[in-house]
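Case study: Lipoprotein.
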Amino acid sequence: MRIKNYMLGFTCICLVLLGTACESESDKRKARIKQLDKEINQLKKETDLMNDYLDACEKVSKC
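Here is what the predicted structure looks like once written out:
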């Protein structure tokens, strides 16, 4: 009976540690996704600026 209790306790500890590790990985992924979203937004802004610049160049060349 004691061995069974020890095994059950050990299993519970392992499951808690596994859950903590999975949570940590999930947090890392969320942080990475947030960082990528920031980079995407920055690239969109730069693209918009370049498009505005190209439009201005086209208008000047038509004159």
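For the exam, be able to explain this: The chain has a mean pLDDT of 87.
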